[in-house]
Amino acid sequence: MRIISGKYKAKKLKTLKTNDTRPTSDKVRGSIFSMLGEIDGAVLDLFGGTGSLSVEALSRGAESAMIIDGADDAVRLIRENTSFVEEELEIYRNDFRRALKAMAKRDKSFDLIFLDPPYRKKLVDQSLHKIKELKLLNPNGRIVVETSKDEKVNIEGFTCVKEHTYGTIKVQLLIEDKE
């Protein structure tokens, strides 16, 4: 796996040798960033895995990133995969619910949020609900959701502006509904 474009183009990233983490392929990651276009501001990667989505965003112009993952081995890998990053970067091992609450207490908000949790566990629904409730998405912010293609996601409070399927993977680009 490698960084596709930008400042860190061609940097190689490691992956875990377990089935617990499912890294976004170079092809899908490239498609996600084509969908997104210009990248800037603060990024949150709520289910960090390898950190590849955040590193790609930083490589393409994001100013800072926060990566959260609940697994010790994933956090170790993320630290290794981001050792060369020059931008502001925070990495935490935490349950996503507690992490979101902690961000709200710190008045954190984000311009781009990646949600790529384990499939079919309704974690996207829970995450979207908390992100909206805690006001963690900046105005004009975007959320990228990656799920299995047959997974139903409740996007109440958000609008899907783009959706693509790549084999067994579905990627949605969401914006928050204005109240």
TrEMBL record:
<protein>
    <submittedName>
        <fullName>Ribosomal RNA small subunit methyltransferase D</fullName>
    </submittedName>
</protein>
<dbReference type="InterPro" id="IPR029063">
    <property type="entry name" value="SAM-dependent_MTases_sf"/>
</dbReference>
<dbReference type="GO" id="GO:0008168">
    <property type="term" value="F:methyltransferase activity"/>
</dbReference>
<dbReference type="InterPro" id="IPR004398">
    <property type="entry name" value="RNA_MeTrfase_RsmD"/>
</dbReference>
<keyword id="KW-0489">Methyltransferase</keyword>
<dbReference type="GO" id="GO:0003676">
    <property type="term" value="F:nucleic acid binding"/>
</dbReference>
<dbReference type="InterPro" id="IPR002052">
    <property type="entry name" value="DNA_methylase_N6_adenine_CS"/>
</dbReference>
<dbReference type="GO" id="GO:0031167">
    <property type="term" value="P:rRNA methylation"/>
</dbReference>
<keyword id="KW-0808">Transferase</keyword>
<dbReference type="Pfam" id="PF03602">
    <property type="entry name" value="Cons_hypoth95"/>
</dbReference>
